[in-house]
Task: inverse folding
């Protein structure tokens, strides 16, 4: 059964859905640029006329059956709406489940947790794309329940800059962004308590990690300064709040600890990942990369730790990609291209249940690009090689897309392609990360990496060797020990939840990290321009 509601005439379908708590996916923030908030409206005469953006972004067949973009169609009279945009954004995000893990560093510290008030605690990872919750038994140091869901703020844009702009431009933008994420967290809490049989009175404390913008929004701090140079946070210090002051549905006085941040773009999530891996306690040189909507880089050992942030953008998590989606059911997450026949083979998340492919998630995108580069389908410049099988050209003979999966035989599916514009998004993302790593190595005077630690929503799930093949990671990492950590930020939040002493360790680590600010750095701009091309094919 659907939802019935009354909305003001002239309101967009996207805004009407949001007013009812319905989260239609719109990675461009409702600006009519991404084409992913697709709906069917009946009758079509009861909404505004088709816009130029819709004519450009929607297939003619979809327009003919009353398909519209929710951000463009404005309500004129009573109508019914069927959401379609979720087709490439279905299911729960993967990669956040740590049920049963024990993350306390020692037995003695585990014993200390027994004296804490409340027998359970919560660790939250407020990601730009995904919210993750870990319900922990403070007595045993065990994660008894973990869950994740998409961050509902994505309806205002897929990246932090879009959300900062919404907070700046709308009269109640900050409260809107804060309230919807708190509501989503409360939903995760309620379901977690119900599943484990715990009560909210049993929750004694909460720890929170997130990038600097996400932590600001969660705490109700205006992110205005984060959107303009020199991108300063309100404070880099950790914050301790009461649950009720943040709107969390927990007992009054429950302590909420928000991690310290290093800078405007190196946040508490990076500090959490550092706390989990502790590169500052090691002799080996560690390169820790948290790859998500932003790429945070940490480099060094016990002698010195450096950090930088690169604007990799949301493409590596499936956003701003024509057939992109999150790593959820129906997503193509692995791709192989035969270099002689150009045949494409792929694997689908949940494919063993008979699902047809719905889109490409980040790991599938990197696989596809790397395999196409090695097969000669993508030239070093990023251009698609016309004349090869699977490359679709426009009327001018320019390659515009490559077919990954052809589902046109199914009425509910469509062709999954990688477009020329998608390749460009990958070039921008990979160049930003590679250039940041290169400059950080140079600044720190380091030429050899002993350990490569990959974490983050995308970082822990992609084929890092393909990252080297496309010039996203330096070739030197092939000689390093590679460690893949499932959500290092969340693990760090759990550790600080279970041992209060580790909060001080996190503070010291953040305070002593040397920051390389890449924004506005002419060396970074020069390296970025040089590194957008792909390496030559390996023989």
Result:
């Amino acid at each position: 059964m659907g939802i019935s509601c009354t909305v003001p005439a002239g309101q967009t379908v996207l805004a009407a859905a949001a007013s009812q708590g319905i989260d239609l996916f719109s990675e461009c923030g409702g600006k009519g640029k991404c084409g992913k908030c697709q709906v069917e409206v009946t009758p079509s005469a009861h909404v505004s006329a088709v816009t130029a953006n819709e004519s450009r972004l929607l297939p003619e067949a979809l327009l003919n059956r009353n398909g519209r973009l929710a951000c463009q169609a404005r309500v004129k009279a009573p109508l019914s709406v069927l959401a379609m945009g979720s087709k490439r954004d279905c299911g729960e995000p993967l990669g956040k489940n740590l049920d049963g893990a024990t993350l306390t560093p020692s037995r003695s510290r585990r014993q200390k947790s027994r004296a804490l008030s409340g027998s359970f605690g919560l660790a939250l990872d407020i990601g730009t794309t995904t919210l993750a919750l870990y319900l922990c038994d403070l007595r045993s140091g065990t994660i008894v329940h973990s869950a994740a869901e998409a961050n509902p703020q994505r309806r205002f844009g897929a990246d932090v800059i879009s959300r900062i702009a919404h907070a700046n431009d709308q009269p109640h933008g900050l409260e809107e962004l804060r309230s919807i994420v708190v509501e989503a967290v409360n939903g995760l809490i309620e379901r977690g308590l119900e599943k484990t049989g715990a009560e909210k009175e049993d929750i004694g404390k909460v720890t929170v990690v997130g990038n600097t913008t996400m932590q600001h929004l969660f705490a109700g701090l205006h992110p205005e300064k984060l959107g303009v140079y020199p991108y300063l946070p309100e404070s880099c210090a950790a914050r301790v709040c009461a649950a009720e002051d943040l709107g969390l549905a927990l007992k009054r006085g429950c302590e909420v600890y928000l991690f310290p941040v290093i800078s405007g773009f190196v946040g508490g999530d990076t500090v959490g990942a550092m706390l989990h891996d502790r590169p500052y306690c090691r002799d080996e040189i560690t390169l820790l990369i948290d790859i998500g909507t932003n790429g945070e880089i940490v480099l060094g050992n016990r002698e010195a730790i450096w950090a930088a942030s690169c604007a990799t953008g949301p493409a590596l998590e499936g956003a701003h990609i024509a057939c992109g989606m999150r790593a959820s059911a129906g997503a193509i997450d692995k791709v192989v291209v035969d270099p002689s026949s150009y045949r494409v083979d792929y694997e689908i998340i949940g494919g063993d249940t008979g699902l047809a492919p719905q889109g490409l998630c980040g790991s599938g995108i990197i696989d596809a690009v790397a395999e196409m580069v090695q097969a000669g389908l993508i030239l070093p410049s990023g251009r698609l090689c016309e004349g090869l099988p699977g490359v679709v050209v426009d009327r001018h003979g320019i390659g515009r897309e490559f077919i990954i999966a052809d589902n046109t035989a199914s009425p509910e599916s469509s062709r999954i392609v990688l477009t020329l514009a998608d390749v460009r998004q990958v070039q921008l993302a990979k160049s930003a990360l590679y250039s940041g790593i290169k400059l950080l190595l140079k600044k720190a005077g380091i030429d050899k990496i002993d350990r490569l630690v990959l974490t983050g929503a995308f970082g822990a799930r992609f084929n890092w060797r393909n990252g080297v093949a496309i010039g996203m990671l330096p070739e030197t990492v092939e000689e390093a020990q590679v460690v893949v950590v499932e959500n290092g930020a969340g693990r760090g939040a759990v550790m600080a939840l279970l041992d209060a002493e580790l909060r001080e360790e996190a503070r010291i680590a953040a305070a002593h990290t040397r920051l390389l600010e890449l924004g506005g750095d002419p060396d970074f701009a020069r390296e970025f321009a040089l590194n957008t091309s792909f390496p030559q094919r390996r023989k």
Residues 337 and 344 are 5 Å apart (CA to CA). The chain is about 30% helix and 20% strand. Residues 86-95, 104-116 have pLDDT under 50 and may be disordered.
